[in-house]
Description:
Layout (H helix, E strand, L loop, with lengths): L8 H38 L7 H18 L9 H25 L8 H28 L5 E6 L3 H12 L5 E7 L8 H4 L2 E3 L4 H8 L3 E4 L6 H11 L5 E4 L11 E6 L4 E6 L6 H21 L1 H14 L5 E7 L5 E7 L6 H11 L1 H10 L11 H8 L7 H7 L3 E3 L9 H4 L3 H4 L5 E3 L12 H13 L3 H17 L5
Parallel strand pairs: 1-2, 1-4, 2-3, 4-5, 10-11
Antiparallel strand pairs: 6-7, 8-9
Helix pairs in contact: 1-2, 1-4, 2-3, 3-4, 9-14, 10-13, 11-12
Amino acid sequence: MQTRTRIPTRIRRICAPLLFIVFDYLAILVAEKMAFGLHDLYGLLIGTSYHVPDAYLYFWIPLVFIAFLAISQTYTKMQPILETVRQIFYAVLYALITCILALYFMQASVLASRLYVVLFGVLALFNVYATRYALLKFLKGTNTFMKPVILIGAGKTAEQVLRSFERDLGYRYKVIGILDDNPVSQTLPQKFLLMGTLDNAAEIVHDSGVKTVIVTVPGMEKEKLQALLEHIQPYVRDIIFVPDLIGVPLYNVEAQTLFNEQIMMLSLRNNLARRRNRMFKRFFDIAVGGLLCVSILPILLVIAICITLDSKGSAFFNAQRIGKHGKTFTCYKFRSMHTNAGEILKEYLAAHSAAQEEWNTFAKLRDYDPRVTKVGRWIRKYSLDELPQILNVIKGDMSLVGPRPYLPREKEDIGEYLSTITLTVPGVTGFWQTSGRNDVSFAGRVAMDTWYVRNWSIWLDLMYLFKTAKIVLTGKGAY
């Protein structure tokens, strides 16, 4: 069987990194021009101006940045977009420091202006992020420079892996076929070519010319898995396999190899157990939360007036929620329901069995909720009812990103995961809020919040804040 792609593997392997390099070069060059333009504008006010040698502007500085981006494997490695964002940040930071040191020792103090350094650093990071995002979006949307892969295993794990690949811009895999003795998934055999069984995997992989294989059979016996990997390894460049560690907190994992014993150890870091990380998270909340609080004050006033005019009662609804270490605190929200919401809900559930079943599963009414006011439906759609929680963030009861603020009566439903979830303060937004919200069951929310606490990093927080901004603008998943 010969399954070849239009673009030869070698050309595709070279073209994609070259395209990223060209766009990064342009992004850095534009950042330099913008930084010096703003610097010169400031110079007009104070009567000074600077000239930049073309060799620095067009060659040496971009070369240093591209070198650090290459060392970080941002051009060649397919990985989650979150990891690429983190690597680009450190690559730009180290490149900026290197340029400053080099220019200092070369006595090129013309470029050592502190204003220029700050402007260029911020603009370079922003431009590289923006161009990389746009380029990844284009490549994935047009199926350009996709890496052909063969998928071994067609079960639920394979479905989850492919779903993640489809959603994440960092992966550009194109599945040309699957191998499985007895596919469990009903959709994968319909979507992709079933090329054969595991017994003839090596022959099929060799004949296909595909150089990347993804093994998604975490439940396979150790001996069978080892034999499978040994048979196909001579014919491929990369083998990616899912180990039997699903659900284990692995975002902050580090792999260590004991070569003499042929043993691999995994080191798991609990980031929120470290004081410096908790302090950094708190500093981030105060800084960003403070800026948001000042900027949204007029919006808070307008919403409060609209709620008061729409229905009787206070504009705010202050309720008790479970906080850090299981202690309760007062959570601030805009009132989006009628004041007698409890009575309305009880009567509605008694009269509608389907609604009662929905409430038992999701602890919410996703489509129609008789308790919600007219203004309440609008502010819920865009999550504006949660804006007052910025005050909780400043007080320290909540964080910008964190687990869902659960009700005290939900302790029993949370069960054994309560101790993990309450290791940190709840968040205004978080994993479950950006992953379906009312489409996620209560058990699903608990699982997501538990995963977040075990895998916390500042990069996760930034990702969820970015996704929250998109959701607020579209109203997707609101309840």
